[in-house]
Design goal:
The protein is mainly alpha-helical. The chain has two domains: 85 residues; 268 residues, no CATH class. It is built from nine helices and eight strands. Strands 3-6-7 form a three-stranded antiparallel beta sheet. It has a three-stranded mixed beta sheet with strand order 4-8-5, with helices on one face. A two-stranded antiparallel sheet has the order 1-2. The protein starts with a helix and ends in a 42-residue tail after the last helix. 22% of the residues are buried. The C terminus is likely disordered.
């Protein structure tokens, strides 16, 4: 009996030991699980915090985008105010100076072409009134003689181009003389009124800068910016068709008709279609002359100017262009300047936008005594024509048209062929 009880006891003890081990293992496993739960809870808290951070980040990003959009709008608005107030400190149009200069040059060259096409080359199926042309050449002091047999059409063409421009200038100067339209409220006097009132305001702002104590940049620069903005607008829309009347601008219509009638005195275009096409060019020609010479030049800072070269001035390739041989330049002078030089003056010189177009001839060598005799004859002629005239002598003797050696060849040593290489066959 005892051995059997002993075995049973051993079994019980073994079972108890195994159970204790299992309980210990389970207890350890429970602890691990609890630790894992703690970690998971911690991670869950961290995840919740991350979610909150993500939400905050989204809100922050949205706010940033909103602020950027507002900032962009504010920058645009500020830019408008800066433009209006003249905050910019560079008035050589540096932002657009290159583009503006290129465009101005391009527009002037296009005006050259328009003027040439309007005057025409005076050749196929075009009759030239030589008598009227002779009078015109004499008015411009030209020394080359023309005739029915030798009309020298390139010279006549050059003089007509000069004449057309100057006649447009005469009409424009009268139009822009505001006292002629001071009480007018007509729509076609708008450009004249704008120029007059803008000039007054610009002068007043200049006086504010010079006569009132202060040293701020805005007041100093506003006269320049005001001038530029006004003439930019006029150079863009000035002399366009009138909306309220649904018609051409009166000045353009009247002046272009005057130009056509004037040109018909000097040349008659036989072909009806060609005549109609050429006459139609007058409107754009007048409008572009006004925009360039009266508006676009005044946008520049300092303001650009135009300059006519006088008869007998020596040829200078830097400021003039025409047809000549390089070897002959030292012997050439201006017969007539058909299009002025466009330039912008500076304290140390000037910048040339486009050189003048000139028709040249060889200078005439005459001794001083003969020149004085000619001048006395001219003065007597003036007294004979108009007894009330007060003669003035404003001639300069220089190497361009005199031979100071005193030697006389007894005749005018001149080349009346005009520009070197420029004959009647030139287009």
């Amino acid at each position: 009996m005892f051995p059997r009880s002993k075995n049973a006891l051993c079994v019980i003890q073994t079972t108890i030991m195994m159970t204790s081990q299992e309980i210990r293992k389970k207890s350890e496993r429970n602890k691990l699980v609890e630790n894992e739960n703690v970690d998971l809870k911690t991670k869950l808290k961290e995840c919740n915090h991350c979610n909150k951070l993500e939400e905050q980040l989204k809100e922050t990003r949205s706010l940033i985008q909103s602020l950027k959009h507002k900032n962009k709008n504010l920058e645009a608005e500020t830019s408008k105010y800066q433009s209006a107030l003249g905050i910019a400190t560079n008035f050589d149009l540096n932002v657009d100076e290159h583009d503006d200069s290129v465009k101005l040059n391009k527009d002037i060259l296009e005006l050259h072409d328009t003027l040439e096409n309007y005057v025409t080359n005076l050749k196929p199926r075009i009759d030239v009134n030589i008598n009227e042309a002779k009078k015109l050449l004499e008015n411009y002091g030209c020394q080359i003689k023309i005739s029915e047999e030798e009309p020298n059409k390139p010279l006549i063409k050059a003089v007509l181009q000069r004449h057309v421009l100057e006649e447009i200038f005469v009409e424009a100067n009268f139009y822009f003389d505001f006292k002629n339209y001071k009480l007018s409220v007509k729509d076609h006097h708008l450009e004249s009124s704008i120029v007059d009132q803008a000039t007054t305001l610009i002068d007043l702002m200049g006086k504010l800068n010079s006569n009132r104590l202060g040293n701020d940049e805005i007041t100093r620069l506003i006269p320049i910016r005001l001038r530029q903005q006004v003439y930019i607008a006029l150079g863009t829309r000035g002399f366009n068709d009138i909306i309220s009347q649904d018609s051409k601008h009166n000045f353009i219509d009247i002046t272009s008709n005057k130009m056509n009638k004037m040109m018909n005195k000097f040349r008659r275009i036989k072909d009806k279609e060609t005549r109609k096409r050429v006459n139609a060019m007058a409107e754009d020609l007048v409008r572009n002359v006004l925009r360039i010479f009266y508006f676009r030049l005044r946008i520049q800072e300092p303001m650009a100017q135009y300059h006519w070269f006088k008869n007998d001035e020596k040829i200078n390739k830097s400021y003039m262009k025409g047809c000549w041989n390089e070897g002959d330049i030292k012997d050439l002078v201006v017969e007539v300047c058909s299009f002025p030089m466009i330039c912008r003056p500076y304290s140390d010189g000037f910048k040339v936008f486009t050189p003048a177009k000139v028709f040249s001839r060889r200078f005439i060598k005459r001794n001083i005594m003969r020149k004085l005799t000619d001048k006395v004859g001219n003065i007597k002629k003036k007294f004979t024509q108009n007894g009330n005239s007060v003669p003035t002598l404003q001639d300069n003797y220089d190497s361009n048209d005199s031979d100071d050696s005193g030697e006389s060849d007894g005749s005018d040593d001149s080349d009346d062929s005009g520009e070197s290489g420029d004959s009647d066959e030139t287009n």
